[in-house]
Structures are given as C-alpha cells and as structure tokens.
User: Which sequence fits this backbone?
C-alpha cells in the first residue's frame, strides 16, 4: 500500500509535469521576464541566439527561431524552427528578424568575440534586441564560491561555470555603452531599459545546495522549486545575479 507521502509526491510531480513541463528553475527566472515583455510588445517573429535547445520557446509557448552550433533532432516539429549557425555570423539578412533574444550566452563567449556577437544582433534585428547576462564583480564572486563547492564535491571544475570564470562576466555599464555605439555605427538609435534579474543571494543559495547538498537537495531544487515559480519569478530585488537589456532600435 502506498503511503500518504508517496501519494502526495506523485500528485505534486503530476502537477509540475503538466504545468511546467521540462522547465528549469534558473532558465525560467531569466526567460519568463523576456516572454512577458514579448507578449506585451506584441512580438511575432523572434530569434533565440544560443538557445541550446528549446530555450525561450519553452517559456514563451510560441513559435521561435532557435539558433545554435548544434541542436537536438527532437526539436523538429515542436515550437522550434531550428537553425544551425554561430552568434558571430548570424545567417540572416540585415533587419530581417523582428526581435533578437540572447539569454545567458555572452559569458560563454571569449571577450574578443563579444563585440561581433552584439554587432550581429543589432544588424539582424528589425525592431528590438534583448540581451540577458550575469554582470559585475559580485556575480563573478558568487560564481567563484559556487564553483569551489562543485570542485570540492566532484574533484573537477563545472563545465559552464568554468567557461564563465575563464571568459569573465560582462560589465553592465560597458555593455550598455557598447550596444549604443554599435547601433550608432549602423545608423540607428538605441533606447535601452535595464531590468535586474534574480536576487544574487538566492542564486548563490540555490547553486550551493544544488551542487553541494547531495541528491535529495538537488532534486528538491531542480524539480520541486519549480512549483514556486509564481512567487520566485518576482525575486529580482537588491543586488542581482543577472541583468536584462531591452534595446529598442530605430532610425535617427
């Protein structure tokens, strides 16, 4: 006979699988504000640069062009229109895509290539570019602490965190200035709004326990905290791990 705990656990799992299918907590926190913005602005054509898979489409719930150097075959026939390519040379014409989105991609790219990536997004975007990225020295320090927890637990560096540490995080002020300059160089004017995303202490708590707290805590964080998304998607106060740059582009 099943215990009450087992029954409740299955019901919670069923709810999460139905309401938030295949969602990831950290990805949800960065993509949901973007999805809400796209809905408010009435966007219809969106390119997700560096999607890694379903990316934005999973949280927006609408057809999305997904670009990456490799994409799972299973994306065919879903909400994804897959396109193989690199962020430094987007395979699209000038101002051919209404909105370009890039979430947590810049920090995986060497600093020498970031200017070209941003320039390509400005070139291809017809109306708007949205860039999300962890920014600044405090976020870098938090990543170093979390990376150390993972290293002590696994005797090796964490793959994506190590890329962040190797390449360095963008500086928010420099990033905003760079986007404006690139737009001007292409004969356009950039109106930028910056939105804070994911309280830094919360981000650090999540990943310290996810990497170092054992399988039960990892499952709690990876799986069950998704049920609290209606509350957690508002934890963008104070010092934050990430910033989102909403860039409206127009002719001068």
Assistant:
């Amino acid at each position: 006979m099943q215990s009450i705990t087992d029954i409740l656990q299955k019901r919670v799992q069923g709810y999460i699988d139905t309401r938030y299918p295949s969602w990831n907590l950290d990805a949800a926190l960065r993509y949901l504000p973007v999805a809400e913005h796209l809905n408010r602005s009435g966007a219809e054509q969106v390119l997700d640069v560096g999607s890694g898979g379903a990316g934005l489409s999973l949280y927006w719930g609408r057809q999305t062009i997904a670009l990456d150097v490799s994409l799972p075959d299973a994306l065919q026939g879903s909400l994804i229109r897959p396109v193989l390519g690199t962020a430094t040379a987007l395979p699209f014409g000038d101002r051919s895509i209404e909105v370009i989105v890039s979430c947590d991609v810049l920090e995986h790219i060497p600093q020498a290539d970031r200017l070209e990536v941003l320039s390509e997004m400005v070139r291809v975007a017809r109306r708007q570019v949205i860039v999300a990225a962890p920014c600044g020295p405090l976020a870098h320090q938090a990543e170093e602490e979390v990376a150390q927890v993972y290293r002590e637990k696994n005797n090796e560096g964490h793959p994506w965190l190590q890329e962040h540490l190797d390449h360095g995080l963008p500086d928010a002020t420099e990033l905003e200035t760079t986007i404006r300059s690139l737009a001007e160089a292409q004969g356009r004017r950039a109106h930028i709004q910056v939105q804070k995303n994911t309280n830094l202490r919360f981000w650090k708590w999540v990943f310290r326990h996810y990497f170092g707290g054992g399988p039960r805590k990892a499952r709690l964080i990876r799986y069950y905290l998704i049920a609290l998304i209606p509350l957690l998607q508002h934890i963008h106060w104070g010092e934050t791990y990430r910033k989102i740059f909403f860039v409206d582009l127009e002719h001068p």
Remarks:
- Residues 136-154 form the longest helix (19 residues).
- The chain has one domain: 31-54+62-125+135-250.
- The domain at 31-54+62-125+135-250 is CATH 3.40.50 (Rossmann fold).
- The mean pLDDT is 92.
